[in-house]
Amino acid sequence: MQAKKRYFILLSAGSCLALLFYFGGLQFRASRSHSRREEHSGRNGLHHPSPDHFWPRFPDALRPFVPWDQLENEDSSVHISPRQKRDANSSIYKGKKCRMESCFDFTLCKKNGFKVYVYPQQKGEKIAESYQNILAAIEGSRFYTSDPSQACLFVLSLDTLDRDQLSPQYVHNLRSKVQSLHLWNNGRNHLIFNLYSGTWPDYTEDVGFDIGQAMLAKASISTENFRPNFDVSIPLFSKDHPRTGGERGFLKFNTIPPLRKYMLVFKGKRYLTGIGSDTRNALYHVHNGEDVVLLTTCKHGKDWQKHKDSRCDRDNTEYEKYDYREMLHNATFCLVPRGRRLGSFRFLEALQAACVPVMLSNGWELPFSEVINWNQAAVIGDERLLLQIPSTIRSIHQDKILALRQQTQFLWEAYFSSVEKIVLTTLEIIQDRIFKHISRNSLIWNKHPGGLFVLPQYSSYLGDFPYYYANLGLKPPSKFTAVIHAVTPLVSQSQPVLKLLMAAAKSQYCAQIIVLWNCDKPLPAKHRWPATAVPVFVIEGESKVMSSRFLPYDNIITDAVLSLDEDTVLSTTEVDFAFTVWQSFPERIVGYPARSHFWDNSKERWGYTSKWTNDYSMVLTGAAIYHKYYHYLYTHYLPASLKNMVDQLANCEDILMNFLVSAVTKLPPIKVTQKKQYKETMMGQTSRASRWADPDHFAQRQSCMNTFASWFGYMPLIHSQMRLDPVLFKDQVSILRKKYRDIERL
C-alpha cells in the first residue's frame, strides 16, 4: 500500500514537471513571436497590447533603457486615443538623438558655402509681423540665396513662431502643409524658429507637428529637450522688438561704485496656480520695500477675481506704486523668474538696462549658450534657494558688478538688440558647426566686437584682427602699405599724385606703395613712375568702380593701410605722425580730413556737412590709416545694394567705410593735427574726374547718409571733439626740440 502511494506521488510530481516545462516553453515561444509581431506591426502602424499590460504599474519602478525616438512604441501608448498617439508621435522628442553628424547633410554646404533658402510664401497664408522680420533678416543677409539648389540650410515661410493652440497667431494644419513641401526631406537641413510652444495648463515644448530631422531655433527650451550642437536656444522677444538696429544699452557711464538705488527688483504677473506659480508666489518673502523691491500682481486674465487669494489686493496696491522703467534704470540686479514657460521678456529688458539678470528658471537652456559665457553677464540662481538670493548678490564685489554690467551691454548690442542680430547670431552659430576648422572661439564671441563682425573666413589667427592685440600681448604693426586711388591719366611729372607717392615712399614706416589704377586710360609705362626706396605696384581696379578701392587685395602685405586720394596733399612728417597715432588705436580710422553729420529737423533726415566745427564724426579715406581687415569686411559683410549705390554714384564710399567701422567699434574715428590750408585739391572745375567739381556732390552724400542709416537700422556714426597733435605742437619752445617740427611749417 505504501509503495503504491510513493509511485503515485512520483507520477504526479513528474506530470507536474512535464506540464510546467510544456507551458513554460509555450510562453517563451509566444513572447518571442509576439515581439516579432509587434516589431512588424510597428512598421505597419499597428499595435497590440503586451501581456505586461495586465500587470499593475508602479510609478517608481525601474524602467529599461529605451531610445527617445522609440518612446512612441511603448506599452503605455495603449491608454491613449489614436489622435493623442499621433500627436505624441509628432513631438519634438522623436528626433531627440539628432546631432549635426547624424541629421545634417554637410555635402550641401561644400559646393556653394553656407547659403540659406527661404521658401516662397504660399497664397492665403498669414504671417505674423515677428516672423516676417525673421524672414526679412535672412533675405537681407549675405547668406541668402533664392536658388534652392545652392542652399545649405532651408527655412519655412510657414509661420512656426507661435504654436500655442489658444493663440490667434496659431497656424492650423501645419503638419500636412509641411509634409507637402517637396524640399522637406523629413526636415533634414531645415531650421525651424519657435517662440511659443504648448498651451494651458502644461505648456509643453511640443511644437505640434513632426519636425523630423530639422533643427530648432527655440525660445524657452529646457536643457532636457535641448539637443546640444544641433538646436539653438534663442531669447523670447516681443512683437515690438526692432527688426534692425535697435536701441543702445542704458549704461552711459562706467559709474564707480556701480551700485544703484535698488539692489534687486522685479515687477510682473503672479500666477496663483499651475506651472510657473511656485517661484513668483514666494517672492513676497524676499521683498523688503527698500533696496529689494519684488512686485507681483494677480490682476491679469478674465477671471482673476474668482481665483484671487488673501494677498492679491495688497500686492496689486503695492504693484501700482512703482514705475517699471524707473526701477530698471535704478537697479543693480534684476530678477528674471520663469513664467508659464522657462523664458521671460524680463531677460532682454534687464540686459538692455545694464541691470545684471538674476536667473530663476531651473532647467532653462540660456540663449546662445553654445557660444556665450553667461557667467560673465548674469547670476544663475536656483528656484529652490530663493531666500538666499539677496545675501548672495550682496556678497558680489563692486569690481565684479561693474564687469557684469559692462558685459550685459556688450551682449545686448552685439546679439540681442534687434531681430536681425538674433537671426544672424543663430545662422553664424550653425555656420561655425559646419565649418569647424574656421569656427570662432569663445574669446571672439564674448569680447568686443563680437562674433557677427569677426569673420573667420578672413583668418583663423586672432592676431590678424585689429581687436585682440592686447589680449595676445602683441604690438600693433610697424609698417603700412600706401594705397593711392588714381582716376586721372598721368600726363605730367608735376601732377599731385607723383608728389604724394614720393612723400609716402619717404616715410620710415612705409613697406610698399600700391597705385590702384581706376582710370579709363591704359596703365602708364613703368618709366613714368618715379624711383623710390620701397616697391611700387600699379594694379588695375576691378571694373573701374569706386568700391574696388576697398577690395582685399592680396598685394597688401601689411595689416595697416594708408588710403590716399590722388589729389591729397600730405608731407612725409604728417604720414609718420598719423601712423604713430594709429598704432595706439589700431581698430579705428585715423586721418586728416574730417566731416560731420547732423539731424535736420526741418527735413526729418540726416544731413552731411564739411564745415569746420568743434566736432566731427567721420574721417575721409582720402587721407586715412586703418586696418586692412576693413577691406574684407567692406567687401563681404556689406550688402551688394549699398556697394552698387556707391559705384553708380561714384561717391560715398568713404562715408560707407566710416559707417562700417563705427558700427563695429562703437567708437568715433581719430582726427590728427589740423592744417588750416588743408583742402581736397580740386583738379580744375572743368575736370570730369573731379568729384568735388560736381554740383550734386553734397546732395548725393546727404542721400547716401540716409540710405546707409536705413540699412544699419540706426545711425552708427559718433561725434568726437578729440584731435591729437604732436607733443609741443605750437608750443613756444625751440623748433629743434620738436619731433614733428615740419607739421607747423605747413
CATH topology of the largest domain: Spore Coat Polysaccharide Biosynthesis Protein SpsA, Chain A
Instruction: Assess the beta-strand content as a share of residues.
Output: 5-15%
Report strand order across the widest sheet: 15-14-13-16-21-17-22-23
Please give the number of β-strands. 23
Helix content: 25-40%
Number of domains: 3
Structural class: alpha/beta
Radius of gyration: 34 Å
Q: Can you describe what's shown?
A:
With 746 residues, this protein is an alpha/beta fold. The protein folds into three domains: 94-234, no CATH class; 262-417, Glycogen Phosphorylase B (Rossmann fold, 3-Layer(aba) Sandwich); 480-675 and 695-724, Spore Coat Polysaccharide Biosynthesis Protein SpsA, Chain A (Alpha-Beta Complex), CATH 3.90.550.10. Helix content is 30%, strand content 14%. It has 22 helices and 23 strands. The strands form five sheets. Strands 15-14-13-16-21-17-22-23 form an eight-stranded mixed sheet, sandwiched between helices. A five-stranded parallel sheet has the order 1-2-4-6-7. It has a five-stranded parallel sheet with strand order 9-8-10-11-12. α5 (129-139) packs across α14 (419-434), α11 packs across α13 (398-416) and α21 (653-665) packs parallel to α22 (697-712).
